Amino acid sequence: MRPPICILVLLLSAQPALAQVPDYSSLELQARTNLPVNGPSFNLPSGSSFNSITVSINDEAEVAFKVQILPGTNAAGIWFGGAGIGGIVCESENLEDVFVTDVSLNNTPNLVFGQVFGNNNGLYVCDPAIPASTLVTALPLGTTSWGSPQLQDNGSIGYRASFSSGRAWVAFAAGNATIYAAEAAIQPGTGIGFLFTPAYGSTARIAGKVQVLADGPTPQHDQIQLNDGAGSVTSLATTRNADPGSPFNGFDNSVGINGFDQVAFISSLFGGGRGVYRVQTGQAPVEMARTGVDGLVEIEFFAPAINDSGLVVFRGRDANGQAIFVSDGSTLQKVVSQGDTVPSDLGPATIGQHDASPVFGGGVVINNNGDVAFTAGLHPPGNNQIEWGSGVFVAYASADKIFSDDFE
């Protein structure tokens, strides 16, 4: 759990209390997987494996993530912990082809994951205190997969439900599943050709990229929409082919949302390059970062994340290689970068790979205190041909963060 330190204080208003970009000089390893031939794992059974996962983090800097391979079993594992301590707390069904989604962790703490290709598929909630997982819903009827579930502190879950003929954005709360939006293939007349991966916020609104079908003189185009599930849909940004004044040529497939309905998205730009933006209802998008500015060479195709203070974190690249960046709209700063030396259970480690493979896996996340969680490949300093596997880290948003880093 996150020790009591000076944290960002949010104003209790309809607007977020914007925070400055914090310092990230303190990093802590939570877990590390490695092949048995390359040495032991840390906080995981030897032979465990995860790949291209996105970690979830709550406001106590506790983290959760899926482990695709658990030795001696066909089940997928769910890891939970914090402050450098943790382990597998729940598992999927023990079946050869079973698949689980990335995990979402709230502040209670409970976590949710979706399961397919099992005997009892749907959304499962795991309580690390028991530990046990419970199937909470397979709704709506006819759903074949439950993608990108996101769990709020009140127990509600937002996700994308897939059917044999299309997709819908759904929220499950108090035993009921509410369809926020559905593709025309499954609900004719919606005008929606495709629903991309949504983000579900604590106000029970869903945001995401929507492919809008052609309507008269308006061509097919993409929008970033905010949907309250009760019939109110707001277009926050539109591609240039439908709005000649828009700077956006196209949007990446996933977005982030915070507790004030601010939405973070990434777009290719009419003027060239790519940018990261923060937007909310009634306001123009705010540029958080753009390639060619502040040394940013590339913005990678992974979802940005945004916290209640309006800080946006994303994956990118500068002249030194891959990095994780954070921005408040005025200042762009690296959280951690390829080639950095970080603490590990094996001693100082370097973030990197033995070849040109990506050094970071999956997306990145940020909590309301500004702490950032991510996964990265590791090797001993000075020798990238020795693999130390992949580690899950938390970068704490305070220079005076005190944590257990002795690994003795």
What does this structure look like?
There is one protein chain. The protein is mainly β. It has strands spanning 26-33, 56-57, 63-67, 77-82, 85-91, 99-100, 104-105, 111-116, 122-127, 132-137, 145-151, 157-162, 167-173, 176-182, 192-195, 199-200, 206-212, 221-227, 233-238, 248-251, 256-257, 263-269, 274-279, 286-290, 298-299, 305-306, 312-318, 321-327, 332-337, 341-342, 349-351, 360-366, 372-379, 390-396. β27 and β28 (321-327) form a beta hairpin. It has no helices and 34 strands. The chain is globular, with a radius of gyration of 21 Å. The strands form 7 sheets. Strands 1, 30, 31, 32, 33 and 34 form a 6-stranded antiparallel sheet that branches. Residues 1-13 and 399-408 have low confidence and may be disordered. It starts with 25 loop residues before the first strand and ends in a 12-residue tail after the last strand.
Portion of residues in helices?
under 10%
Tell me about the largest β-sheet. Answer: 6 strands, antiparallel
Gap from first CA to last CA: 20 Å
Low-confidence stretches: 1-13, 399-408
Number of helices: 0
Oligomeric nature of the chains: single chain
Give the DSSP E fraction (strand runs of 2 or more residues). 35-45%
DSSP, total strands: 34
Mean pLDDT: 93
Radius of gyration: 21 Å
Structural class: mainly beta
